[in-house]
Amino acid sequence: MPQSFQTLPRSYKKRYPFRIGTTSFIYPAGYTENIARLGPHVDEIEILMFESHPDSRPTGQLVRELGSQAEQLSLTYNIHLPTDLDLTDPEPSRRRSACRILREFITTLMPLDPSVYVLHLPPPDGIRSAEHLHRWHSIAAESLRKILSAGLPGRCLALENLFFPYDRLDPLIEEFDLSVCLDTGHLALQSGDLEAFLQKYGPRIAIGHLHGLCDGEDHRALGGLPDHYLTVLKNWLEGFHGSVSLEVFAFESLLESLTFLERMMASGGESIPSGAR
Length: 277
Known about the structure:
Blueprint: E1 19-23, H1 31-38, E2 44-48, H2 60-73, E3 76-80, H3 92-109, E4 117-119, H4 130-148, E5 157-160, H5 170-176, E6 179-183, H6 184-189, H7 194-201, E7 205-210, E8 212-214, E9 217-220, H8 227-237, E10 243-246, H9 251-266
Parallel strand pairs: 1-2, 1-10, 2-3, 3-4, 4-5, 5-6, 6-7, 7-10
Antiparallel strand pairs: 8-9
């Protein structure tokens, strides 16, 4: 018997100045079925490709199917590149392999004309000196140069804020003219200053991964963000024209996040309206 999935109650297409979307893993099904169910309701889908092993790599057939769905459903895509590859691995052969595989992902997915590719650049472990950090920057720059040589403009690649000081990436962002991916859950877990992040990187932010916290874990419904983030986030979103992905992985969290976002954006005051959480 076919599995029964819940459906979003209405469309959110073209509702906001930004493109509203979510991940390709809302339903326990494959890419095309998730997109078929989500596409009528959102502007963009974040295609999650977290793993790089051969069975997880996109095929030409998958890309053709995704392209056809995008055309039929008036969708755009953004791509989350694999997170299990380390472009700054101390071992050169592993770095070269990581670069080669990521280039293959990018090249294969280019026909989808993604709004942006999001990359996790693993943190520089055990930075003990300015010289060590400079060496890490040199290794990262070498890898990024190889990735971008696939024909990808720098602004089409966004580095996501992870669990280390994001300003360590500043030299790379400037050198390659990269974009920024703001992840609210990651920032909140570190008690980061959202307003300062937006002030510094705002013009470079191509995509926001929006999600909240619950019991110390992220990728939960958006309403779980700290109270002091919400007005700052709303004010930024009102003038943002890039991509927003509600980065959750279950239908209930998505519906709750969409409802919360709708109420937050409609609020005229300085606080989130009663009943929004």
